[in-house]
Specification:
- The chain is α+β, with helices and mostly antiparallel strands and 397 residues long.
- Among the domains are: 4-135, no CATH class; 264-397, 2-Layer Sandwich (Heat Shock Protein 90).
- It has 11 helices and 5 strands; from the N terminus they run αααααααααβαββαββ.
- It has a 5-stranded mixed beta sheet with strand order 1-2-3-5-4, covered by helices on one side.
- A hairpin with a 3-residue loop joins β2 and β3.
- It is an enzyme of class 2 (transferase).
């Protein structure tokens, strides 16, 4: 990218390039008009002179005006300049009026010739004046001795200013690039700081929940189990309901703590976490469950891991509470660019269109946030299959 100053500078250069291209035409037209009006020669001589002037204009256009920027064909500029001087000399010999065009040769020497060749071209540009008819050689040589150094000095100053302009433009581009890089690094630092703050806050919430709600629910379950044999039989049913409710709430709290843990699971521990979840669920509900991993486990971003683990917990929780299943199969598949979690059961099934509990809704939202998808296949009496697909988002090094 270029800065606004660079763009303005380039536009100014393009305008000046157009001036250098068109200025010789102005001098050539002026000299041709003066020759046609003031030369006391026949019309045949005038027409031949104007024809040579037209050839000179075409020569200039062929090498210079036909290109979008000057100097695109430096290798051909020497040929151009020699032809320019030859045609100009012929015109000056035919009409003194074309001495008006000679200053344009000085200009074109610096515009078209590279390096020191431009100074040679300035000296050579004197040839048309030296061969001009009727001029005093001593006056001409004296004039050229004054004009040539002045033109060379002026051209050198212009070239120095051009080099300085180019240097400043390059410096500006470097500064713009540095500013963009600094902005990118600043945005990266801000994002990393925000992610660190979020991770620290999640860790704090996890500790608070574990030390307060989870411990309190654990105590409630323990107390309810302790008084189970001390209350009358009719009350035990109520206590059992309260105990199961407390256990279920404790499971949900532990699930929330697990989801809040900061940082990615190192050494591809996602498969181990899902396996532990399946084992714990099997012990809790006393339902046969199998867990399979396909592909090569790899570390992925924490959001991917938490989402998949949360999906496994939610799907298994729904099976345990609603499906009346006798077997569950959980498969975690690592593919090239996605990870797929499949949970299948042989339970009673359900109407997918009517399923809209908070757990599934929250799961869909979480998966969509990772550009993933949740697919559910089920019908009453045929079990259910839940498939969660999320893209592989690697751990930033």
């Amino acid at each position: 990218m270029t800065s606004m100053d660079d763009q303005l500078g380039l536009r100014r250069e393009q305008r000046w390039d157009l001036v250098w291209v068109l200025a010789p035409y102005g001098l050539l037209v002026l000299a041709a008009v003066a020759s046609a009006v003031f030369d006391h020669v026949g019309w045949e001589h005038r027409l031949v002179t104007l024809g040579i002037a037209a050839v000179l204009g075409g020569w200039h256009g062929l090498f210079i005006a036909a290109h979008s920027r000057l100097g695109e064909r430096r290798s051909a500029m020497a040929v151009y300049f020699v032809g320019l001087l030859a045609l100009t000399t012929v015109l000056v010999l035919r009409s003194d009026a074309f001495q008006l065009f000679v200053p344009g040769c000085y200009l074109l020497a610096f515009v078209t010739l590279p390096g020191w060749a431009a100074y040679v071209g300035v000296v050579a540009a004197n040839v048309p004046w030296l061969v001009a008819q009727g001029s005093d050689p001593r006056a001409t040589l004296f004039s050229l001795a004054m004009v040539t150094p002045l033109v060379a000095l002026t051209g050198g100053m212009i070239r120095a200013m051009e080099r300085e302009t180019i240097r400043r433009r390059e410096t500006n581009r470097e500064l713009v690039a540095m500013a963009e890089e600094n902005a990118r690094l600043h945005a990266l630092l801000v994002r990393q700081a925000r992610e660190t703050g979020i991770a620290e806050e999640r860790a704090r919430l996890a500790r608070e929940i574990h030390d307060t709600v989870a411990q309190g629910l654990t105590g409630i379950v323990t107390q309810l189990e302790a008084v189970d044999d001390l209350v009358p039989l009719p009350v035990r049913g109520r206590l059992a309901v309260a105990r199961d409710l407390a256990r279920s709430s404790l499971t949900e709290v532990r699930r929330s703590i697990e989801a809040l843990r900061p940082g990615p699971l190192q050494d591809a521990r996602l498969s181990d976490a899902v396996r532990d979840t399946v084992g714990t669920w099997q012990e809790q509900y006393d339902i046969a469950a199998a867990f399979t991993v396909t592909g090569t486990p790899l570390p992925v971003h924490s959001e991917v891991e938490v989402t998949l683990l949360r999906a496994a917990q939610e799907a298994l929780s729904n099976v345990g509470r609603h499906a009346d299943a006798t077997r569950v199969d959980v498969t975690l598949s690592y593919m090239e660019d996605v990870i797929i979690l499949d949970v299948r059961d042989d339970g009673t099934g359900f109407d997918v269109a009517a399923a809209g509990g908070f757990g599934l809704t929250a799961l869909r939202q979480r998966v969509r946030a990772l550009s993933g998808s949740v697919d559910i296949e089920s019908a009453p009496g045929v079990g259910a299959a839940v498939s969660i697909t999320v893209p592989v988002i690697g751990v930033e090094q």
